[in-house]
Write a structure and sequence with these properties.
single chain; mainly alpha; rod-shaped
Amino acid sequence: MKPMKPFAQAKQFSSNQIIFGSILLLTLYSAVAVTVSLFRGSDAKIAYVNSAILLQKYKGAIDANKRFEEESKTWETNIRTLQSELDSLNFLFTKESEHWSLNKKKEVATYARKKEQDLNRYSQAIQQKASA
């Protein structure tokens, strides 16, 4: 019998999935708003809204998508930078640590753990921002 994991790992969503989800929510909201407004009056009418065209041409959706893409690029660059710093520390440690004193080894290992924690915290914060 496999031991149960206390917490499942959070699923990471790509920026395309987030954008698609936002578009879907906007479409559903629009559909509900149109439906409610149509049935308020005495003459009920039915209309078809092509949400894909609406989202492609609506300036608000275009601007929001552009802002999100810019933020996503910044987040990805920051994560790559943090990961690169951590990789460099690990490489340095494996190549040079045999010539270091015990205190220096501890200092570099502590610093590397801090960098790893920074990377994890930043990644989690970005995931929360992207899903909000």
